[in-house]
Amino acid sequence: MSAMQKLPRLTPRQESVPVWPACWAVMRRDLLSSLRQRQDLFNPLLFFVMVVSLFPLGVSPEKAFLREAGAGILWVAALLSTLLSLDHLFRHDFEEGVLEQLLLQPQPLYLIVLTKVVAHWLVTGVPLILMTPVLGIMLQLDGNSIACLCLTLLLGTPVLSFIGAIGAALTLGLRSAGILLSLLVIPLYIPVLIFGTGTVMAAGQGLPTASHFALLGALLVLALTCAPFAAAAALRISVSNS
Predict the structure, then answer these.
(1) CB 41 within 8 A of CB 111
(2) Residue 170 neighbours by CB under 8 Å, 6+ apart
């Protein structure tokens, strides 16, 4: 049974369905769909591990270099891994006709987008955070730097998903959407990358990190507040032009 058949159609009785049960149904459907399509689940994680593993082989295996550049390596790998999975955020729903049904639902579209982005982060961002301590040990990072790195990824990877959702919605249905998505999103990722790596470097040098975490938290709040509305508007434009 396709995903389009599983999504209930809009009926007069369903117009009174509360918002949160509808959002939970969308999240549950996306999580189950990700578990069925395991290549979309494991490809970003495998890419993350491969990129981090190849850096010492291609640049330098010296402990001093790895300890200094480890945070940047892990953050760049996490950024690219998140970018790798963004093209599938709305595309499957668009190709199966589910996205049109979501646009017709009485619930606000920005809440549906928010739910889908959270589901995307749970599938792609959380595994990267769980794998980070192992790769941090491989890159000779100390325990304090690894803990700080995991916390910065916990704050920063949702921002990457929210920003990427806007780009994925804008490029929906276009040819060579992956290349265009990268060109749109990567410049917006730069502040998150700078603050994420800067926090870990400050922690490694024994400097205060409260201001760095505050900036990452502010970026997260800004993305959480604005990105769902922007992505919802972009989805309406993309679907109407398709």
Answers:
(1) no
(2) 184, 234, 237, 238
Residue matched to tokens 């470097």: 201
Q: Using an 8 Å Cβ cutoff, are 184 and 59 in contact?
A: no
Question: Which percentage of the chain shows pLDDT scores above 90?
Answer: 39
Residues 6+ apart with CB under 8 A from 5: none
How far is it, in rounded angstroms, from Cα 23 to Cα 105? 11
pLDDT in tens, 164-207: 999 988 888 777 777 888 888 999 999 999 999 999 988 888 88
- Residue 84 and residue 98: Cα distance in Å, rounded? 22
**Element of type H or E holding 42:** helix 38-58
Query: Is 81 exposed, middle or buried (CB count within 10 Å of its CB: 0-12, 13-18, 19+)?
Result: buried
Q: What is the CA radius of gyration of the chain?
A: 19
Give the separation between CA 12 and CA 98, rounded to whole angstroms.
19
Measure the CA–CA gap between 116 and 37, rounded to whole angstroms.
Answer: 16
Averaged pLDDT score across all residues of the chain: 85
Q: Per this entry, what is the length of the chain?
A: 242
Looking at residue 210, its amino acid is: A
| CA 156 – CA 193 distance, rounded (Å) | 8
Q: How many CB atoms lie within 10 A of CB 231?
A: 28
pLDDT of residue 7: 45
pTM as predicted:
0.86
Average the pLDDT over 125-140 and give the result.
Answer: 92
DSSP state of 105: S
